[in-house]
Predict the 3D structure of the following.
Amino acid sequence: MNQPISLVPLDIELMHKALEATPDALVIMDETGAPRFINAAARELLRTSKPASSFYEMLLHVLSFNPLSFTEDGEREVPINGSMYYVSVHPLFISRGKRGAVLFFRSFSMLKQAEDLKTDFVTIASHELRNPLTSLKNALDILIRKGAGETTPKQENFLHIAMRNANRISTLVNDYLDLSKIELNKVSFQFMEHTLDEIVYPVIEELKERAAGKKISLGVDLPPHLPHILADASKVEQIFVNLVENALKYSDDGGSISVSAREVMTHARDGYDQHMVEVTIADTGIGIPEDKRELIFNKFYRIKRAIEVREEGSGLGLAVVKKLVERHGGTIHVEDNVPAGSKFCFTLPTYKGERRDPQLRLLLDREVERARKNQCFLSLIIIMIENFKAILKHNGEERAELILEKVERSVKDSLYRTADVFVSHKKGEILVVICETEKQGAEIICRRIKQHTAQVLDELSKSLSCNLQFRFGVASYPNDAENQRELFKKALAHAKGDEDAK
């Protein structure tokens, strides 16, 4: 199937009808801002009958940003007619330079429905696929161990083939569901202070027997004064298991695998310094061609060499690793190991005596740095729960946790995009939402949270015999603050009603 596809020249009228029928709102404009095409969905959304000369002025008012200023593809969250929309901007270029832009508008409510479908699929798949696979493997294990009677050599061979394939399917299902849950923010992370050796050495010990079977040496070289890391230990362990198991799979008998680490610092930008620990897992295996080093982190991608050595794999392990590293605020890449093999290098944040809530610090640092890189708005919403101390005092810690879980679930249900980050701070006294939108969009999200949580708060207020209310504070990067610490202080001051912060 490597034959080139022959395209028949598209009739202009046919193209016009196809774009007109697109369900997403679509606007194509030239370099002056004059509309060259507006489909039916966009006309309904923007509700415009204005002539071309005033269209761009109207669009600037609606968007609150200039789409013609984009030099590369970008996205923004924009409130339109009381609802939030995801606006994708794609600049148009020809040989003589920029010639305009294409804008797509997608409703958050539609995106929310799509995410709900994904969530439902993951939930159903977890039960409907994992449980039968477990039963199948248990049945095969009983037969292989001759628990149901003697088997012939030929039957034993077929049973072992069946077990290998059941294990392969199980790995594929588990990897895919793990990846889906991470992408949907359905995996909770508990960021705490750890030493790297307390995570690395148990993994190496666990894999020593497999390495000995191939006469592969496993070495660890960690500096004695390596800084502590801020991490979820179980997730970092999963990263190590995946990478070391891959190195074992694709290294020849008699090879070697080494784990080393060092402290590094990310590029300082706008006063932003990030101390990191860089971990390197080096092997003497088959190596990875330079042009495939980015692709190997894509879902289901396997290089030809990996297939040729006949090692089974789902093609999802490295995609899971990349997501886990990124959720820790780190990066991962692969390079050559001289004289042979590969080096996988990934970074994890250092703890460095951090006073802030570790989970909130990591999430806020990551999201502000992403906003800097993409040159986009980022808003921080602080939600303070009034009478929080009274809830703890009169209900006890255990019942208070159940009450707060209900409140937090109601707030989470108010967020439509999986990219919106939610975290509970100070044992639930402060709830934090981080969203990629300007202040106006964040204020709309606050109103939506109020509407969605009104009934829950009312019911809880009656049962607790005290008034349970939210107080909101909003601050936006870069308009209100230039770094993450200022952003948090500003939003918190607004929530407390500090007039100096307004």
Summary: The longest strand covers residues 83-94. Residues 12-107 form a domain with the Beta-Lactamase fold (CATH 3.30.450.20). Residues 250 and 309 are 7 Å apart (CA to CA). The chain has four domains: 12-107, 129-183, 192-349, 358-501.
